[in-house]
Design brief:
The chain is about 35% helix and about 20% strand. It is α+β, with helices and mostly antiparallel strands. The strands form 2 sheets. It has a 3-stranded antiparallel sheet. A 3-stranded mixed sheet has the order 5-4-6, with no helix packed on it. The protein is globular, with a radius of gyration of 16 Å.
Length: about 140
């Protein structure tokens, strides 16, 4: 997990001021090895500490600074994960698995992204692959 001082340094390197909201969100994301939804981040940070509007604005600022990346699932929920230092392939460098029952998303970092041909003259700004199914925990609970 990143230390509080490390988070402040990362924000400064990205040209951002170190605010309590930014530090709290980055520290919450650092606690988990999977992408988190707004609701999950709010639960880790505490809504008394950070209201919803500030959370959305903070995530947008961290996205713009390329400190986090967003993964959109077919369930319509955006999930966020810290940009890994030295991993220039983020956000499209690996696949994700989304459980259709509990909504938890996990990284499949060892899976290569498939090659895709895009129309001539276009600019690719990222790739995303989400594999859907039922996670091990939900299967154990449901007997499937």
């Amino acid at each position: 997990m990143r230390k509080s001082g490390d988070v402040g340094e990362e924000l400064r390197r990205a040209g951002m001021r170190t605010t309590s909201a930014r530090k709290s969100v980055m520290e919450a994301l650092a606690k988990e090895q999977r992408p988190l939804s707004h609701t999950e981040i709010a639960g880790l940070v505490g809504e008394a500490t950070l209201d919803r509007v500030t959370l959305y604005r903070t995530l947008d600022a961290l996205l713009d600074a390329k400190l986090v990346h967003r993964v959109q699932g077919l369930d319509g929920i955006s999930r966020y994960r810290l940009h890994s230092p030295g991993d220039e392939s983020c956000p499209g460098g690996h696949a994700h698995f989304l459980c259709g029952r509990c909504g938890r998303m996990s990284c499949l970092a060892d899976q290569r992204m498939p090659r895709v041909r895009v129309p001539r003259g276009t600019l690719v700004e990222g790739k995303q692959l989400v594999v859907y199914g039922v996670c091990r925990s939900c299967r154990a609970e449901g007997g499937q």
